[in-house]
Fold:
Amino acid sequence: QEELVESGGGLVQPGGSLTLSCVASEDILGIEAMGWYRQTPGKERELVALATDDRPINYTDSVKGRFTISRDNDKNTVYLEMNNLKPEDTGVYYCYVNSVMWLTSLPPQRVASDFWGPGTQVTVSS
Structure:
């Protein structure tokens, strides 16, 4: 069973737009954060945008003003609208989810889990 299902990647010309979607399984309980990371050739995986409960949205500087992350909590879905795409945006984009559960122990035990999508390719090229 796929825990995170991604869609929306593809090939686009510079200046174009794409919107990524990620649907998290209802089996994932206690979601606190949903977002997107990317990995480009020769670089480590980096945060693109992260939406965390009760916190401001976090964007990496290189996408500010161009990308918009949003969440539909009723649908367990996160979106990444990408506008004015540049060749340096090319890479594999990974949906990310962080969830937290509390165990009824003394003291209560916080159990955090990270979930990753399989990655969807975004290529910006002319």
About this structure: The chain has a mean pLDDT of 96.
